[in-house]
Amino acid sequence: MPADARIDDETAGFIQGAVSIIAATRNAEHRPALVRAQGCRVDPGGAGLTVLVVADQATELLDDIRDNRRVAVVFTRPSTHRSVQVKGEDARIVAASAQDLALAAGYRDAMVAELALIGVPEARVRALLAGVGELVAIAFSPTSAFVQTPGPDAGRVLEMPR
Amino acid sequence: MTPGLDAIRDCLDGSQPGVMATCAPDGTPNVAYLSQVEYIDPAHLALSFQFFNKTRQNILANPQARLLLMHPKTAAMYRLTLRYLRTESEGPLFERMRAKLAGIASHTGMSGVFQLKGSDVYRVEAIEPVPGQPLPVTPPRRNLLEATRAVALRLADAADLDAALEALLTGLRQDFDIHHAMVLLLDGGGQKLFTVASCGYGESGIGSEIAVGDGVIGVAARERTPIRIAHMTGEYAYGQAVREAMAHGALADRLETAIPLPGLPESRSQLAVPIVGGGRLSGVLYVESPQDLRFGYDDEDALVALGAQLGMAICALRADASGDLPPAEPIPPPDGAPVMIRHHPGTDSVFVGEDYLIKGVAGAILWTLLRDHVEHGRTVFANRELRLDPRIRLPELSDNLEARLILLTRRLAERDACIRIEKAGRGRLRLCVRRPLKLVEMPSERAG
């Protein structure tokens, strides 16, 4: 497993932008769980990645992370369908910082603007991303990434710089 | 108590309906967007299988999956626990999904990319609402169950097929706010559908035909399943299919005897439901709209119910073809210059003067009526005698004489021909001829 894999700058820009983020895990019986996340940040250098989720919406997912630390996250730009999936094996739960709360607020505003491009009204975006309770951060080192834009290229492994 | 899938099926409509998580045999989770989720029943759904991707590999090895859905209006989220059961690659479910996928693909600019390989069927084991702050549910523009009741009562009041078709189209306009609709009935041979009633088009298209299997309408007939498309699509454009068939195929030499199928040039939502009664397909009810996402699951349910009622009415009317004697009202004798009526025996095409009027079984019926009128002075005919008349060669198995008579009656009225057909009591008709007729039987034109 390449421990020093990192997210390239272009991909980092994409996944920190106005993209839908869905995180998934699995339990000991290999039953998957998933939740919508509310923002993402990439550590300088691209070796670490953090996504924010509402704890009450992610009970099972957080249990799975405590159990086996495996995670997969898909990032999709609604207006173009461009999609990237990033996976990790060392996910851990971290308390959200004040910067994280500001990041989530900025993310919601960016999503309102992005989804307006395809005709989704602001109220619906705010409802989808309502901050109902405590936000927590899931941090992990990306080990692999895949192109997931629909089409013949879907599933291609995204080369990760070392 | 969690809701059944039927309670949240609006979440399955739309161009990006869900995200699914699966798990590989080595324990690696995977998460991917789906392009299509199809409702089957309160405990089952189907997902489109288009590519042999990670999701597909995973569910074949480990049938457990979780699906995240969002309500398209309220943004409420639901998490579904699924178990993969099987893949279907033919039949009604597959065809329904294929037609719908073509609509989604066209809407999202993915026409060359999306191609359905199979319908993956899953059991829904649990539905869990995700905590959140969804928007309030807005009341629908109309309670469709109540609208269905209103149209069902109109249909129940109709004494014959003509009245039933009018009741249905009027009801769709008034109670469903559906303004573009047509009813097509199955030809005796079971290979073609012909338009017998329509509303909302510049040209009624009465008498126009489409092959079973062609376009949204033809596939709905062949598979006896509703086909609902929320976005415009080229692949299933029925008009185009017909035009292409006419340009390339065996119909090319008969262009002058074809009536164009009506249709919206910018159709963005389409719904075709089979008309079935007594275990037999009778035809297709088709509605369309220039709006995207105009028809939902509830519209589909309503039209399927009304299609079934019309199907039963067609069966009942077929069985009840006997009736009273006609009221004897005098018909004014024909007057003016004679009109030449030509009949081509090969196709049973009938021309009034230089104008094409009708062909096929309806053409044979008209020719028979006109001959008996000119040769024997008859004006009143019983449906039963027409049904048995060897000159008409009505297909025995699928006896749709009433539908043919309606088609003929409407076509005559539309063309403002000098010939009219009126009802003359139950099971009888009266031929009204305004001008003297000169009947000309053309020689058989067998080429080669």
TrEMBL record, chain A:
What Gene3D superfamilies does its record include? Electron Transport, Fmn-binding Protein, Chain A
Q: Under which name does UniProt file this protein?
A: Pyridoxamine 5'-phosphate oxidase family protein
Automatic annotation (TrEMBL), chain B:
Locate the coiled-coil region(s) and give their ranges.
none
Q: Which SUPFAM superfamilies match?
A: FMN-binding split barrel, GAF domain-like
Q: Which domain of life is it from?
A: Bacteria
Pfam short name (any one): PNPOx_N
Q: Which residues form the GAF domain?
A: 160-324
List the PANTHER family hit by this protein, alphabetically.
Answer: 5'-PHOSPHATE OXIDASE PUTATIVE DOMAIN-CONTAINING PROTEIN-RELATED
Q: What is this protein called?
A: GAF domain-containing protein
**What organism is the protein native to?**
Dyella lutea
